[in-house]
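Re: the pair you flagged

First of the two:
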Amino acid sequence: MIEISDVYKKFKGVEALSGVSFRVNQGELFGVIGPDGAGKTTLFRIIISLMLSDSGSVSLWGLDPDKDYKKVRQIIGYMPGHFSLYEDLSIEENLRFFATVFGTTIEQNYYLIEDIYKQIEPFKKRPAGKLSGGMKQKLALSCALIHRPRLLVLDEPTTGVDAVSRQEFWEMLKKLQKEGITIIVSTPYMDEASLCDRVALIDNGRVIVSGTPQQITKGFGKSLFGVKNDDMYKLLQLCRLFPNTDTVYPFGEWLHVTFKNDAKEADLQDFLKQKGIENPLVVPIEPSIEDCFLGAKS
């Protein structure tokens, strides 16, 4: 079990983390979801013993990353947000280097990385610096796994990667989870929250809500409506002017709106028609993780 309890971290008077607490169970795929600057990278660096917290505690199966950092680093595989392998070394040379550092070989744990590595193995002599974004991602994950870590920590691994590679990456994580590896992954993409067993939504250094994706969406606590019309800009301005609007956010070709004072969708429809909007569409919808994140912030 991994337990983060009341962790604080400040940089030059600015709080990067402010009382962060959550628990990750053995074998779980746990997501830390939040925008850039939310504190995700700072938290991960504390978990893996690369940074000291100002206060609070972290326990990895009873190990303290501050006091037991040598043991902690043996059981962790870490993939940072930016590609940090040796760009002048080939794919194969990078992988052999990391295997040697951890006292193992590619052959010994090849079964663990096979599904990932075989996609880049035909290019194993190519320098890492000349790989595409998706190939760099697969190489970095292979290097993080080659010593078969107990805990895999991934800091925004899909940022800047195309949609197909993102999907493939999450499929890889699900397979690794079946091998008994506990995974903590951070992402700014709210849609990826549904792929995790449990998540913590974090913003401005604070966990604003945590639980399973289903628990979080069920706890939204308000009726949510989708609003749509041809003139979305005008529609957005008018929804903001509606006296009983609580929140309104653009979501692609829809607006997501909540009401106050027990207002109904018909009330908004009548208001919009009075303002010259023809046939406004207002329908009840189910909240997403992003709706819950924005609702918790407001």
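Second of the two:
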Amino acid sequence: MTNEARAAAKQEEAEAMADNLPKNKSEDYFAGFDFKGLEVDMRVMLKNGVHFGHQKARKNPKMNEYIFGTKNGINIINLEKTVEKVEETKKFIEKIISEGQDILFVGTKKQAKNIVESAAKACGMPYVVERWLGGTFTNFKNISGRTRYLRDGQDKMKKGEYAKYTKFEQMKMAEELERLESRMGGIKNMMKLPGAIFVTGVLEDNLAVQEARKKNIPIIALVDTNVDPGVIDYPIPANEDAVSSLRLMVGYVCQAIFEGKEQMGIAKKIAAEANAKALADKEEK
């Protein structure tokens, strides 16, 4: 069997294991998804093909500690390590979300785009699924200016404030806003640098990883057997090619975000009750 055939077989086998995946790629991959009931379990990961790595010849030696062995020329990921890293990463995510920070989702690889966008929208996080805009982190001031222009323009369009212009001018404005939306719509409401970045393809989105490192933004990422996990703060060894694996691993990240938001809500409620009690005590005096 050739390397190309092995790679194709790897993806086909993993995707065949997935249940209830959308048939149309434009569909919401997380519609009706049970985030609360999701288990960090090796059997679930096995079913979704998380253990399939890349061909043996493409292995990055720095991934050795996460590789269980080789089968039919394909590196097999040690799912015990994956479970361990998922649990560790979830604790970190819950912490930063409970503190009111965001996580920027990044996934520009073809098979990851719709999954990443669906997940980010499901848990209310910013996202990048098209080309990474250079300076998103390192020149955040200028990027913020463009996203503000996009938000203001869309708001004016909704309110009919462009009606005073000619139809041609309105068309040009609409085209510009549409172009900006496609390029930066996922980050238009990101008012500050995120508390962390979650990357589904380390090699494909290396620019995002580099900028995050420069700005000391913690990096969470899926690491397949052909990447260097040393540049990632919270590496999660997993198959980053099969849709079934991607959906599951991204689901774990969303689950942690929801749990972090719940903790933040509880903390706010306790603080509000404490303030109300303090105010009541003060009035009694």
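The longest helix spans residues 243-284.

-B.
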